[in-house]
Input
Amino acid sequence: MSGPAIVLAVVAALIHVLFFVMESVLFTRPAVWPRFGLRSQEHADVVRPMALNQGFYNLFLAIGIAVGLVMAAGAADTAGTALVVFACSCMVAAGVVLVLTNRRFLPAAAVQVLPPLLAIALIIS
Output
């Protein structure tokens, strides 16, 4: 795996760790609500269980990239590379679903999609 592919995969993982923090740790803070289109504590309380689950999903994808990169650096390089490509592909697919759900999320989807998509492109080229 090339250096630029590794960097982009790490960036994708770090972005998804940030999503985890916002969705699972800081979600009920008023400063975070606007990022999710929420306007009140009541709305945040209703959406919180889903956001908590979604945050952990993002964390697990980031962990998948990290484990894949460690494996790719060792003897299990093919399996590690496959794991990185799989986790990055899931991130890209989730970003596409986000935009298809609501076009106003295009900027957020671009942040979610571009690093893993570029990492995949570099890995398979």
Summary: The chain has a mean pLDDT of 95. Residues 3-124 form one domain.
